[in-house]
Amino acid sequence: MNHLVSISDYSKEEILDILRAAAGFEANPNRKTLDGKVVATLFFEPSTRTRLSFETAANRLGARVIGFSDAATTSSSKGESLHDTIQMVSNYADVIVMRHYLEGAARYASEVSRVPIVNAGDGANQHPSQTLLDLYSIQKTQGRLDNLQIYLIGDLKYGRTVHSLIQAMYHFKPTFHFIAPDELRMPDEYKLFCDKHGIQYTESRELEGNFNDADILYMTRVQKERFQDLVEYERVKDVYTLRYDMLESTKPNLRILHPLPRVNEIAYDVDKSEKAYYFQQAQNGLYVRQAIISKVLGL
Amino acid sequence: MEKELKVAALRNGTVIDHLPSNQVFKVVSILQLENCKNQITIGNNLDSKRMGTKGIVKISDRFLKEDEVNKIALIAPNAKINIIRNYEVVEKYALTLPDEIRDVVRCMNPKCITNNEPVGTRFHVITDGDQVLLKCHYCEREVLREKAKINNN
Fold it and tell me: Coil, strand, or helix at residue A155?
């Protein structure tokens, strides 16, 4: 059975297949290839973009959608195990899209489900559809995935999107630049991953004036709750804010990505720049998720 | 000579030899020997040319199960197992970790599904230079072998 649990489950060819299919859906998003199918979206943890874009993807393909967006209204609040919930829902639906607060929940679900599982985020672990839409956005804006200068900025310690992006981009010989405060530095295991796969990287604490050769700026949210010392948070929070004037000397092909929601790490004046791409990036999520649902169903 | 006699004195059973001295009592605990009624000999801080000092555990009429061997391999990767039948060493092997170990180690990540639902643990054994890492099959977190928490239910 085809599941999508972790980005590392997909080979380079499978990733490129998804990106090709997503381009097809972008050209023609309304198809009835899932007519008569039921897609279940089980969101044990809140989400706006991911759930809505998966549900829109299913609807645009002609499927019916069942599910929940708040586990408090389901039997899991009565103590039902994930095992039993998945067993039950796999009686009803043709594919299950799930987000869960526990890490490894999607992998486990894939072992007990009779229908394909698509991981829409499991705690701080994996969020492969986000990674694929990031890749799609990079390819679409740069015309290629190979040999790009990619700056990852902000919370590199806890941000699962940046970790998965490193794992996925290793197929394409990128150079990474990690810019983060000391508290939120890229964990050693991902730097070791880069070393092992011959991926070049630099590390820095400073954002300003540091990215003129960038092809992609991948911004992430610096979250207050990650800091033990709130004085330190106050010190760094604005250091990692991207402003319009900082884009002056950057390359014309530079595009700014952000998994959203943003708080204060991208000033609103950046939105007027043609280099701001985060809202189109979110839109790309729809096409990529159409491609993912189709792939796991073998269509 | 004396050492050989000690091993040969076992009629049937298992000898776990070349244990690091600081791991002997962990092995005792892993095998739950405190509850075992068989004859057991535990030696520690014995002279060893290779290790300086070593420990040895001999258990009569008991042959280790795969998960028990895997647990010992985690904490004493260079130990040797001797299987004794009718006073003869019929099998002797060095411990090795399999590619995957199940239900032996607990995941260190409190948010891992295996610590929150009735799910057996699975770890992939990854050798990285001199290091051996265990990667949780579910939450994908890695832990150094020597820091792995052994499940002793």
Answer: coil
